[in-house]
Write a structure and sequence with these properties.
Strand order of the largest sheet: 3-4-10-7-5
Low-confidence stretches: 1-14
CATH class of the largest domain: Mainly Alpha
GO molecular function, one term: metal ion binding
Protein name: Cytochrome P450
Binding site for heme: 466
Bound molecules: protoporphyrin IX containing FE
Cofactor: heme
Strand content: 5-15%
Number of domains: 2
Shape: globular
Transmembrane segments: 20-41, 317-340
Distance between the termini: 92 Å
Largest sheet: 5 strands, mixed
Number of helices: 18
């Protein structure tokens, strides 16, 4: 059997060392080599990172940098496009600015967005919000959580919003939709000066609709005085996001914090009532507690076997209201806007919804409340219309992140602590990815496989991909079905441009002249 030996030089001759000496020597040499390799490697890496330039761009004025330009351009759809274009011409697709004192890198599409989402998955990038925004959301809001805590909370919340869970809400959402048209459109119809036409601001109606739906989803709140007060407080709270962080009476941020306290107190009352109802519900007895997100949060444990604390429940009820309210209402309003601008789109929608109704009638179904998941799946053209509106007017154009380690991207270094932003406006309007990008053309979504990954991002991507996307889709399809079934409309001022505030809207809140039609 071969023995392991080593040799030493003693007195000019090589001697064999016994095996007991050789093992420590081999181990020591290996450790030294490993340390040496690691040291040289990290030295090269550090030198490389020092040598690698940071992305091009300008810091501008101390602290304030490009904050004002960036915010002002984000408030106008065309302005934002132009601002991005001017930066791209000067610095290329990837560039940096200074925003509220921090360097901010705007990532290019698709490679930069992909890089950001993948590194976020590997925990090298985490969520970042300016401190006043983080404070308005609350410490335990999923939007504020990072790392492992976010992963657990996210998987948990997603269970109440995935495809199966959303199927359970279809009937409730359709009920709210039918009620919405009866209360908020048909009443206008009666008030209308001409017998069968009336004028309304579509954005005001869709806001009422999505707020009502979200209140029903999260706490089963009915429309009425309590919901009206909540809506007012919610709007005051949301204005805090685009205000100066001055917590003094008279300032928007101060009012926003006060509104937040009011809303959280209201949630506390609902939590106490619901807890009492749940305690009454014995196994086998008929359930009195509503099957909404609040009941789920109070009764279902996460993967670690833990229930959300009351603080966490309240922060996340508010987050869900926020996530599903303005996003869906602006999306619906933009859909109404584009349908009016492109009458051929309306005709095709009419055809799709007429055929769904005809099938229903043949089966003898009740028409007022008809939706099933299959019906929703058959609204293929409607879904393309929604996607195309989300491409041209995404309610959210990007998301903030922060590098938790030094990063290297495409020959540039992005140092630890820098903020970064994924962005959809640069790819949604790039003719490389979307032919004739400024034209509203739903048929471009006929073949989803032709869309380049990481270029169509209305719902974001990666670990923070919108968990409400299935719900939003269901809600928008149902709304459009009932809208097309009842009405046709034209824009009162087709030349009123779409601006951003910071979500897309026309200044006249999309005033439309509506005519009744019965399908
Ligand atoms: C058309 C409607 C909607 C659009 C366009 C939209 C868009 C988005 C986008 C882009 C993100 C990612 C933000 C980022 O990466 O920083 C997001 C996250 C989120 N959305 Fe939506 N959303 C919509 C509807 C909804 C609805 C209906 C809900 C709730 C039912 C919801 C709840 C959330 C939540 C909780 C997050 C945070 C996820 C996390 O941080 O892990 N959204 N949404």
């Amino acid at each position: 059997m071969a023995s392991i030996v080593t040799y030493t030089m003693a007195g000019g001759t090589w001697n064999r060392l016994p095996l007991s000496y050789t093992t420590p020597i081999i181990v020591s040499v290996s450790i030294l080599v490993t340390i040496g390799v690691w040291f040289i490697g990290s030295y090269i890496q550090t030198r490389r990172q020092i040598r690698l330039p940071v992305p091009p761009g300008s810091y501008g004025l101390p602290w304030i940098g490009d904050t004002m330009n960036f915010m002002a351009s984000s408030m106008s759809a065309v302005g934002y496009q132009k601002w991005i274009e001017s930066k791209r011409r000067k610095y290329g697709a990837l560039f940096k600015i200074r925003f509220l004192g921090n360097p901010l890198v705007l990532m290019e599409a698709p490679a930069g967005n992909k890089f950001l989402f993948q590194k976020e998955g590997k925990k090298q990038i985490d969520i970042y919000w300016p401190p006043q925004v983080a404070r308005l959301f609350g410490r335990k809001a999923i939007l504020n959580l990072g790392g492992e805590e976010h992963r657990v909370a996210r998987r948990y919340v997603a269970r109440f919003l995935d495809y199966t869970a959303v199927s359970r809400y279809v009937e409730t959402v359709e009920r709210r939709t039918v009620q919405h048209f009866a209360d908020h459109w048909e009443k206008e119809e009666i008030r209308g000066s001409e017998s069968d036409t009336f004028v309304i601001a579509a954005l005001d109606k869709t806001k009422l609709f999505t707020f009502s739906v979200m209140c029903s989803l999260v706490i089963s709140m009915d429309e009425g005085p309590e919901m009206e007060v909540l809506l007012g407080k919610f709007n005051t709270w949301a204005r805090g996001f685009i205000s100066l962080p001055i917590n003094l009476p008279g300032f928007s941020f101060y009012n926003a914090l006060k509104a937040r306290s009011y809303i959280l107190d209201l949630f506390s009352t609902h939590i106490a009532q619901r807890t009492a109802q749940l305690a009454k519900d014995r196994p086998g007895a008929s359930k009195t507690a509503a099957p909404d997100i609040l009941t789920s949060l109070l009764t279902v444990a996460d993967e670690n076997g833990e229930l959300f604390s009351e603080t966490k429940i309240k922060d996340n009820l508010l987050t869900l209201l926020f996530g599903g309210f303005d996003t869906s209402s602006t999306a619906l309003t933009m859909i109404i806007y584009y349908i009016a601008k492109y009458p051929r789109v309306y005709d095709q929608l009419l055809q799709e919804h007429r055929s769904i109704l005809e099938q229903k009638r043949r089966k003898g179904d009740d028409e007022a409340l008809i939706m099933t998941r299959e019906d929703l799946s058959s609204m293929k053209y409607t879904w393309r219309v929604i996607q195309e509106a989300l491409r041209l007017q995404p309610p959210l154009t990007g998301g903030w992140r922060r590098a938790t380690t030094d990063l290297e991207y495409n020959g540039y270094s992005i140092p630890k602590g820098w903020t970064m932003m994924w962005n959809n406006m640069n790819s949604h309007f790039d003719p490389k990815f979307f032919h004739d990008p400024t034209t509203f053309n739903p048929s471009r979504f006929e073949e989803p496989s032709t869309i380049t990954p990481f270029t169509f991002l209305p719902f974001g991507a990666g670990t923070r991909f919108c968990p409400g996307n299935e719900f939003a889709k269901m809600e928008m399809l149902i709304f459009i079905h009932h809208l097309i079934k009842r009405y046709q409309w034209t824009l009162v001022d087709p030349d009123d441009p779409v601006i951003r505030d910071p979500m897309p809207m026309q200044r006249n809140r999309t005033l439309i002249k509506v005519t009744r039609r019965i399908l």
